[in-house]
């Protein structure tokens, strides 16, 4: 079935990819100055999919990062 197929792919190291930055900029209007935010989100996704569960960020770490990124975005919008 589809679920076991996905599980097998993940166990073999396959992970979803983020869109390239230029496509993100075009889709949501993110300016080049926000690249650091994109890079941090990409790192979060990459780490969140780590094969070793002990190396994945905790929910508290994710929450803290997202709050910090939200503050950065809001500060740039002012």
Kindly describe this structure.
This protein is mainly α. Helix content is 65%, strand content 0%. The chain contains four helices and no strands. The longest helix has 19 residues.
Q: Any idea what the shape is?
A: flat
What is the strand content? under 5%
Q: Give the biggest beta sheet.
A: none
The span between the termini is: 49 Å
How big is the Rg?
15 Å
Helical content (DSSP H or I, runs of 4+): 55-70%
Average pLDDT level: 77
Decide which structural class fits the backbone.
mainly alpha
- One letter per element, helices H and strands E, the order comes to HHHH
Number of strands: 0
Q: Uncertain spans, ≥5 residues at pLDDT below 50?
A: none
The number of helical runs is: 4
Give a quick summary of the entry.
With 78 residues, the protein is mainly alpha-helical. It has helices spanning 2-11, 21-28, 35-48, 59-77.
Question: What descriptors fit this protein?
Answer:
78 residues, mainly alpha, 4 helices, 65% helix, 0% strand
Layout of secondary structure:
Blueprint: H1 2-11, H2 21-28, H3 35-48, H4 59-77
